[in-house]
Amino acid sequence: MFSHDDWPWVRITGGLGVGFFVVMLVAFGIFIPGQPVPTDPIAEIEEFFADDAALMHSANWIAGVSLVFLFLPFAAGLRAVLGGHDLDGGMWARAAYGAAVALVAVTGAGTVFLGSGMLAAQGGGLDGDVMQLLLWADAFAFSFVVALGIGLFLAATSVVVLRTGVLWKWLGWLGLAIALVCLVGAWWPVDGDPEGVLSGLAFLSLPLLGLWSLLAGINLLRAPTPDRRKTAAVG
Fold this sequence. Notes:
Layout: H1 7-34, H2 42-51, H3 53-83, H4 91-122, H5 128-164, H6 169-185, H7 188-191, H8 197-203, H9 205-222, H10 228-234
Helix pairs in contact: 1-3, 1-9, 2-5, 3-4, 4-5, 5-6, 5-8, 6-8, 6-9
C-alpha cells in the first residue's frame, strides 16, 4: 500500500496522531473539572474567572500546542495518504484538510472569549453579566462551529477509507458515526440547554476526534514496512 520511500513520513503521521490524543487528553483533564456552564449562578462564574485564570490559560496553551503542532501536521500527512488513493481526484482529501485548517482557526478564535475575559477580570474590569456572555460565546464556538468542522473532517476522510481501504475500514465507519454525533450535537443551540443531551454530544466531538486520531495513528504505525527490493522491482 505504501512504498518504501513513503514509509518515514507515514510513520511520522501516525506518531503525530497518537501524540495529539495524548496531549489533548491532558488539556481536557484541566478543562473539564473547572469550567462552569453559562446557566450557573453569576457568583460561581465570577469565582471561576477570579480563581482559575492561570489554570485555564495553561489548558488553552496545551490545547493550542496539540492542535497546531500535532493535529494540523497529522491532517497534512493524512491528506497525503488519502490523496494517493482518493478515487475522486483528491477532492475528499482536500475537503478533509480544509476542514482541519478551519477547525484549528476557529478553535483558536474561540479561545479569545474566555482568554481575554480572564485577563480583563484579573484587572477588575469585568462584571458578572459580561462573564456569563463570554461563557455563552465560548459554548457556541466549541459546541457548534467546532463540532461541524470535526464532522466534515471525519466524514470526508471516512469516504476515502471506506472506498479504498487505505486505513482499517472500520475506522471509516467509526469516523462516519462520530461525524453523525457532531452533526446532531451541533443542533444544541436550538435546544438552548448547555447541559442537555445535544450539548453533551457536541462537547464529545473534540475528545472523539482525538480518539479517532489515536486509532488512525496506530494503524499507520502498524502498517507493514515495504520490502525495498520488491518496491524497486515494481518500479
